[in-house]
Amino acid sequence: MAGYKETPRQKMIGMLYLVLTALLALNVSKDILDAFLVVNDSMENTNESFSTKIASAYAQFENQYQLNPGKVEEYWNQAQEIRRRSDELINYIDKIKLEVVARSEKVTEAEALSLFYREQMVSDPMNPGQQKKKMVLNLVDVPTKDKFDEATNYMVGQNKNGKAYELAGKMEDFRNYILSIIGTQYNDKIGLVTKKAGGYRDATGTSQDWEYYNFFHTILAANVTILNKIIAEVQNAEFDAVNRLYANITEKDFKFDNVVAKVIPRSTFVLSGQSYEAEILVAAYDSKTQSEVKVLRGVSEVTDANIGRAQVFKSEAGTVKLQFPASSEGPQQYAGIIEMRDPSTQEIVRYSFDADYIVAPPSLTVAPLKMNVFYVGVKNPISISAPGIPMEKVVPTISKGKLSRNANGTWDVEVPAGETKTTISASATMDNKSLPLGSSEFRIKRVPDPVAMIAGKLEGAIDKNSLLAAGAIIPTMRDFDFELYFEVTSFTFATIVNGDWIPRNIRGNRFTEEVQGVIRNAQRKQKFFFENIQAKGPDGTVRSLNTINLEIN
Q1: Global confidence as pTM
Q2: Least CB-packed of 337, 376, 419, 453 within 10 Å?
Q3: Burial class (CB in 10 A: 0-12, 13-18, 19+), 488
Q4: How many distinct structural domains can be found in the chain?
Q5: Is 138 found in the same domain as 90?
Q6: Model confidence over 104-134: pLDDT tens digits?
Q7: Residue 309 is part of which domain span?
Q8: Dihedral, CA atoms, 61, 62, 66, 70, nearest 10 degrees?
Q9: Pair 92, 173: CB distance under 8 Å
């Protein structure tokens, strides 16, 4: 345009020129229209051929499912769902084609079917090996195939609310579902893309969305061709997904070259009354596959937090042999992971395991049958155990008396006075059952009498100062390992002064002031007698102890 100011007439002429140019650009030549018809026929034939190919894939898949349903069922169910969703989306697109033709021709859908469709037998993906009737559009017979007004209104709409926007949402949902089945690594291979970086642009560089780019001012023939292209993309995605699932049936299987019978006992230590249990199975392994086992003792599971402390074992001829030193006694446990390369993904995968066992010390039991004795009034320490059974699972009982457990795992037995025998029995909880382990009988006796002593003496000479320093009678247990004490409750003190026998009855074990005064005034060779010594034991009984005879030197 010129740079000077235009008159209103000149502006109107310029505007009419632009409108005319646009109208000329929108005129579709017969050659272009014929090309669309050729492309659409090709797409129709391709889609039908692809449908037959997909049906064959499903038939092969179903055959594997019939042969081995346990192994194939998971993948077959997924394939069935893919088939259902694909068929649903293709039927939806076929419905759009019928509706857009009817709108463009301004007839009902039933009339459009009668005028422009023909019946044809096609493969039925929902029933592999069978065919179904399908109404196929004969685009050549549609008079308005070169028009775009009604098609644009239907597909795009006045406010971008046309059918293409609903179609784009269904395409995106189907695409995301397929990727969730076969993995996002196939993102670039699966079509049905309605959004891309930078968007879509027309010939002038104007940014547009997918719906506007494909269906705005697009003639009916082009609309139908584009819809058939979308059907082809749906079938392509379906075919890739089904083949990927079918490949999983064999690709995810490990290959083995050795098969052996294995006996896995539940335990090699069985008590009388229990049952020996074992699993017998056929184990397959590949002697050429190198695997790595990481084992950590003292845990029930190997995690990312503790795997750094795990011991690594390499396989030899396809197997790994574990060997642990039995350095500590009692229940032991360990856990680990086997790392192997997955044949389908070539990634390292982990298989977890755990086990437990018991370390028992070599033991010899010697039982003195005549000396099984518990003493009244003291805590008799004993040890209760059963080889091969954890201490915490052993439950002892006593017929007469009381059992109490110590922190170090030993037990104390307290028996009552007046009884002559008691029995200790034990059972263990194994496999949620109480298993009797046996019993032992013990005699009940009172503790022996202590020996009364003064300054460590029973009789003989003693100097005056040592006797005064002792100041009391002390009952002492001899050749008895229990720590227990007797309390002297009374005794009789006696001596001879000027030919007279002088006795004094004393309560308790200590010398009274009078007794101490007599001892201070004692003469050399004077004798002192401590008689009728009474002592009370921890069992509450009172014992008469020995006499103590001492002479001042």
Answers
A1: 0.45
A2: 419
A3: buried
A4: 4
A5: yes
A6: 999 998 998 889 888 888 767 667 667 778 8
A7: 258-359
A8: 60
A9: no
